[in-house]
Amino acid sequence: EIVMTQSPATLSVSPGEGATLSCRASQSVSSNLAWYQQKPGQAPRLLIFDASTGATDLPARFSGSGSGTEFTLTISSLQSEDFAVYYCQHYYNWPITFGHGTRLEIK
Amino acid sequence: QVQLVESGGGVVQTGSSLRLSCAASGFSFNTYGMHWVRQAPGKGLEWVACISYEGSNKKYVDSVQGRFTISRDNSKKTVYLQMNSLRGEDTGVYYCAKNGPPYSGTYQDNWGQGTQVTVSS
Predict the structure, then answer these.
(1) Which of A96, A98, A102 to mutate against chain B (most B CBs within 10 Å)?
(2) How far apart (Å, rounded) are the C-alpha atoms in residues B99 and B104?
(3) Closest to B106 (Cβ–Cβ): which among A1, A91, A95?
(4) Per residue in A43-101, pLDDT tens?
């Protein structure tokens, strides 16, 4: 099983500032990596797939990069609605696994 | 638009069974793989199972292998999760999710609102 490690666990950022979230895979997953956003009481929402492709209607301030074992989700200018928990997920092989999440909170 | 509606959750005792259902609409159900993903209280997401578009290929996380069975009825546009020998660690919200690309098992691009499963002793 591929282990996904996200860092940091919690990130405190002021609105308008940028944020960089990291995800590391225990072995190469090529570009088979997705990012999800989850707000309290809501289902997850797909943000990025194939490491860098934005989902439908994704705001331009969100971007994904990386390949192999190191991946990054960047939010360029945080809006109030962006404060949530973010998960990375690989789908390189079975079982699909998620990271433990990064909580993005208002500073 | 894509809509996924889960049902069948509830409170059950350890060792009992439960069947979850997910009714789909708004897309060509018979061309997409479907997933179940769960979330324990206050914890992260855990992928549970996936079924291929025609139902012949099924994958499970090790912790449910042999206890859970995923199935689908394309005529009813519904995917199921039969859960047997339930344990306390199976407690959580269970989400049904649609696979992104057709004819494959990869990421999930649409999710239901989830159904709560509570296993108590």
Answers:
(1) A96
(2) 7
(3) A91
(4) 999 999 999 999 999 999 999 999 999 999 999 999 999 999 999 999 999 999 999 99
